[in-house]
Specification:
Blueprint (H helix, E strand, L loop, with lengths): L5 H7 L8 H8 L4 E8 L4 E11 L2 E9 L8 H15 L4 E7 L3 H9 L3 E10 L4 E9 L4
Parallel strand pairs: 3-4
Antiparallel strand pairs: 1-2, 2-3, 4-6, 5-6
The structure holds coenzyme A.
The site of coenzyme A has 20 residues, from strand 3, helix 3 and helix 4.
């Protein structure tokens, strides 16, 4: 991901509250941050992104989103698989993320890849207020 991608990325951002251009730009330069983006072929279009951080053998997925027209076609799975592959290559042993309790689609995606629920943060999200489910994926044996 580069700064040129940020306009597409902010348009694809769906989370509430949404990250701003400045927040994504800051993440791009975070010392432990890394990001991947997906493009479709024919037509060549921005399809989605995943933002992660890795440090000391531990990774965190901060955000993943697929642009609405391309949802349900495997783009999210491709992005998550590519991120996990990179984590394994970097000898990351565990990966964490948080998701809104009501986000059934994202929970299905994470569970498909072996993430397990390890925690519940009451009232963690705002606008609207909602609990977060904390997921962990163990990577040490991969
Ligand atoms: C969550 C998101 C990234 C999934 O991306 P996607 O490209 O649509 O997902 P995929 O097509 O790869 O599907 C992966 C899994 O998600 C689940 N899923 C996808 N679409 C679904 C639907 N309409 N209903 C229920 N589950 C669904 C399924 O478990 C699916 O696995 P399967 O293909 O084996 O059935 C996408 O829906 C999105 O951008 N949502 C808005 C942003 C968001 O909520 N991000 C997560 C914040 S933590």
């Amino acid at each position: 991901m580069t700064e040129e991608d940020l306009v597409d990325l902010v348009q694809a951002e769906q989370e509430k509250p949404a990250w701003t251009f400045a927040q994504f730009a800051e993440e791009l330069h975070h010392p432990h941050g890394w990001q991947l983006i997906a493009f479709t072929r024919e037509p060549y279009q921005f399809g989605g992104y995943i933002c992660c951080r890795s440090v000391a053998g531990e990774a965190e997925i901060l955000k993943i989103a697929v642009t609405p027209p391309f949802r349900g076609q495997g783009v999210g799975s491709l992005l998550l698989q590519a991120a996990i592959t990179r984590m394994v290559e970097e000898k990351t042993t565990r990966c964490y993320l948080e998701v809104r309790d009501s986000n059934i689609i994202a929970k299905g995606l994470y569970e498909k890849f072996g993430f397990r629920q390890i925690g519940h943060r009451k009232g963690y999200y705002c606008s609207p207020r909602e609990d977060a489910i904390v997921y962990k994926l163990g990577l040490a044996r991969r």
